[in-house]
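Q: Convert this sequence to structure tokens.
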Amino acid sequence: MTVDGAGGVGKSTAVSSTADYLQTRGIPAYATRQPSDTALGSHIRAHADTYTGIALACLVAGDRHHQQATEIGPELEAGKVVLCDRYLPSSLVLQVLDGVPAQKVWQLNDGIRVPDVAVFLRADPDIIASRLAARGAHDRFERDPDRSTAQQVELFDQVAQALRARGWPVHVIDCTDLRPHQTASRIVDLAVHLLDQRTDEGRTA
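A:
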């Protein structure tokens, strides 16, 4: 499962809480993020204000390919529900805002697996902006007025529609009026529903 959305919408909290909820239900879960916690991913996060455009897009895509092969894939094979804070949808918004054509982003990410559930968190831009003001911006994408929260929310909405048209299992959760635990509960329900479907399919195979 992947969780994407504008900076400040509550992705990290939702992923962490969802993993905790699943564990309490006896469902093995593994939480991760992109950029990853590898040396490359940590370098990207530390220098997101330095690298721009295609250079940053290449670094992010390379980290994603590596993480898929060395972390996400093995955890899935071990039977865990993998929850990833940011995934390809974020590149289709942030890298495009950074001047990289969407087609180039797709090319760089060719071979990336389609998640079983692609969650998009959205909220009223004013609420997200107030959260950002309270916690502080993490990078230039959250500080730059040319990449406003409202613009990010709109672009994520567009990407969600485009990916759904490509056959991605997109689920949009509007968390404007939800508390963090309520958002996580919605994601847990999606995960449990997916696991139940797989169990039913196994019984009828």
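The CA atoms of residues 37 and 58 lie 17 Å apart.
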